[in-house]
């Protein structure tokens, strides 16, 4: 799956957190009378009687997002990736959804609870996520056969899709899984409590049979060069009903024989964001005297955070550091296989036949700067209501918190932007890194971890997403190490942000990297004078603008930085004044990459199978030929004309995460920086 993480030192505590958040709500906010209005779908939207300007903006956009007539949700209340169906990015269809979207729903409903005092919607959002995006016991039925001493069979990752299937190699020994037993002891189950990352909500592909959906699916499986345009979508529960004689398994993994099986992949940044949302829900509900309203849901978030520790481990539980040559890289024992960073994924699977008796689990060796979440690590290590039940969960997150902040410092360029990441398994097969590659606790620097088409660290959005979490953490703790990172990053970001006289704005979109960081020395962090970033092009993307504005808002509230506060306001005002439409806030996008609708999809010669709708899968397949439903999409003529030699098409997309993030940015500004707020 492609989607995207050692001396422990928690940030200093801030005992006035609860008092500050209570003040930020405004005196007597929890007891204020409420007004109840109906949005166009007839749903009630509650708010304090005297909503401020930016709080009202939150409510106005919240009403558009939750209006069933606007198309953000399925009939089951599942947030779609986007209102529009023809969209290809990490999901390859707009009415799929991701764990990312569910996590933003949780955060959106937490902010609604803060503004309205109504926490039923936050709790209901978690219930929806738990019902549809966390596999049930029936979905993962053979975990009881999992052997923590032999967690998985090794298969190398390869550079190109055409090098797959990757052959399993049982001669390469994996390390032992040190957390499985304590998780079972803490929660009384062998099942994993984490979200799978991708779901076909409307059953467009048909892997759900005759049901209307939703159904778990997967796409990315074949190395860093496999873009979304080169994927073969397949079910997470492969019972050989579709595909070839072995379902889709032998496209990805080489084995002597194949068994029907289930497998799920977790996107750790989404589960961490769910924990982040639960933290704020608890803080805000506590300030209202309503902590009992959210306590049960917050306890579930702590459980999710406990299982999220699988993302802190090497893929095959090998020892961390200088881990080259799969046969010579020592299997880990205890916690020496943990890098304590939020890596790109963790995954688990097993036999569908409950009498077959096997299951597996893996972490990931690749950690990206954009996936880290120190606010979630802080919540799971130092905020009692989110304390994991397991024996070592709190200690692991305590160490992870320190390691993540160190990671940011190590990856920070001379200008201030955060570079790619690190890997414990060069090329995904424990190869020897090039001579001179700098290291972080023995892990090799990787400019573009995990995927190369496009390079994983060229998008400014990862900067805004990740640094927003650092800014929240700084706001809650005043950790001087986080302040060091944020001061430098904000100075760079502001220098690259342009606000025009009419209120329109641009900021970086595509970044270009050169050089390398210095090898990390915890006692003497270097300035990375040889690591540089430059801005290739610029954007007014509204989702990234919202994440960036939130970053500046929390940073300004924590530090009193005037330029950060005024720029946050300018971004929020600019999108509100210039980019509103009936469905939300959006800008047109020219999609030159849609010339890839006819990209070839690698399928080995001689391999033949079918998609559920009858589309043939073979060596002549391309992106659209195995997704023939796109030819019936109302927007297809725009793509068809482009493929025939016309101009690149324009689309105005309403992505759920982006609309939620804009609303959240308005709410955060109302709480922290709007004149009259408790922080002023």
Automatic annotation (TrEMBL):
PROSITE patterns per record: TAT
Key words of the record: Carbohydrate metabolism, Cellulose degradation, Glycosidase, Hydrolase, Polysaccharide degradation, Signal
InterPro entries linked: 6-hairpin_glycosidase_sf, 6hp_glycosidase-like_sf, Endo-1-4-beta-glucanase_dom2, Endoglucanase_F_dom3, Glyco_hydro_48F, TAT_signal
Keyword Signal: yes
Domain of life of the source: Bacteria
Keyword Hydrolase: yes
Record's protein name: Endoglucanase
Organism: Streptomyces rectiviolaceus
């Amino acid at each position: 799956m492609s989607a995207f993480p050692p001396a422990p030192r928690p940030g200093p505590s801030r005992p006035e957190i609860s008092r500050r958040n209570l003040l930020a709500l405004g005196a007597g906010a929890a007891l204020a009378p409420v007004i109840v209005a109906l949005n166009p779908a007839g749903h009630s939207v509650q708010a304090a009687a005297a909503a401020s300007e930016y709080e009202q903006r939150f409510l106005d956009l919240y009403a558009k997002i939750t209006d069933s007539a606007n198309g953000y949700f399925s009939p089951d209340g599942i947030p779609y990736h986007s209102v529009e169906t023809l969209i290809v990015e990490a999901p390859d269809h707009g009415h799929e959804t991701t764990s990312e979207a569910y996590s933003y729903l949780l955060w959106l409903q937490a902010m609604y609870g803060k503004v309205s005092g109504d926490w039923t919607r936050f709790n209901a959002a978690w219930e929806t996520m738990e019902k549809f995006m966390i596999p049930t016991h029936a979905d993962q039925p053979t975990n009881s056969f999992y052997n923590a001493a032999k967690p998985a069979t090794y298969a190398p990752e390869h550079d190109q899709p055409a090098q797959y299937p990757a052959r399993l190699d049982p001669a390469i020994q994996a390390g032992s899984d040190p957390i499985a037993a304590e998780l079972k002891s803490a929660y009384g189950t062998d099942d994993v409590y984490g979200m799978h990352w991708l779901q076909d909500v409307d059953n467009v592909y048909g892997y759900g049979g005759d049901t209307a959906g939703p159904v778990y699916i997967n796409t990315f499986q074949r190395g860093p060069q496999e873009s979304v345009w080169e994927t073969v979508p397949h079910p997470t529960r492969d019972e050989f009903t579709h595909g070839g004689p072995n379902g889709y398994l032998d496209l990805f993994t080489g084995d002597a024989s194949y068994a029907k099986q289930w497998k799920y992949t977790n996107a750790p940044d989404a589960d961490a964001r769910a924990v982040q949302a639960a933290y704020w829900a608890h803080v805000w509900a506590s300030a209202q005297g309503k902590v009992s309203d959210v306590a049960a849901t917050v306890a579930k978030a702590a459980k999710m955070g406990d299982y999220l520790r699988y993302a802190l481990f090497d893929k095959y539980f090998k020892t961390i550091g200088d881990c080259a040559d799969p046969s010579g890289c020592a299997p880990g024992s205890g916690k020496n296989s943990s890098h304590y960073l939020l890596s790109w994924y963790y995954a688990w699977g097993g036999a569908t036949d409950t009498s077959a008796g096997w299951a597996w689990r893996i972490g990931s060796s690749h950690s990206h700067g954009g996936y880290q979440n120190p606010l979630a690590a802080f919540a799971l290590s130092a905020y009692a209501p989110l304390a994991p039940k397991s024996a070592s969960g709190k200690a692991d997150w305590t160490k992870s918190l320190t390691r993540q902040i160190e990671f940011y410092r190590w990856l920070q360029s001379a200008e201030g932007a955060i570079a790619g990441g690190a890997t414990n398994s060069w090329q995904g097969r424990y190869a020897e890194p090039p001579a001179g590659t700098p290291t972080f606790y023995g892990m090799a620097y990787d400019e573009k971890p995990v995927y190369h088409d496009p390079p994983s660290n060229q998008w400014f959005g990862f900067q805004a997403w990740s640094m927003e979490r650092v800014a929240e953490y700084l706001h809650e703790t005043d950790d001087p190490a986080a302040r060091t990172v944020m001061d430098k990053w904000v100075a760079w970001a502001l220098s690259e942000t342009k606000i025009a006289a009419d209120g329109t704005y641009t900021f970086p979109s595509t970044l270009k990297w050169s050089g390398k960081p210095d090898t990390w020395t915890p006692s003497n962090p270097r300035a990375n004078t040889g690591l540089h970033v430059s801005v290739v092009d610029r954007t007014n993307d509204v989702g990234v603008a919202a994440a960036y504005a939130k970053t500046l808002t929390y940073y300004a509230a924590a530090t009193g930085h005037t330029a950060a506060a005024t720029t946050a306001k300018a971004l929020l005002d600019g999108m509100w004044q210039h980019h509103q439409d009936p469905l939300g806030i959006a800008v047109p996008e020219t999609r030159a990459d849609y010339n890839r609708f006819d990209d070839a999809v690698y399928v080995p010669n001689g391999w033949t199978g079918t998609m559920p709708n009858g589309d043939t899968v073979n060596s002549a397949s391309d992106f659209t030929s195995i997704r023939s439903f796109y030819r019936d999409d109302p927007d297809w003529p725009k793509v068809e004309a482009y493929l025939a030699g016309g101009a690149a098409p324009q689309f105005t997309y309403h992505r759920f995460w982006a609309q939620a993030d804009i609303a959240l940015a308005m709410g955060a500004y109302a709480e922290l920086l709007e004149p009259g707020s408790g922080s002023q």
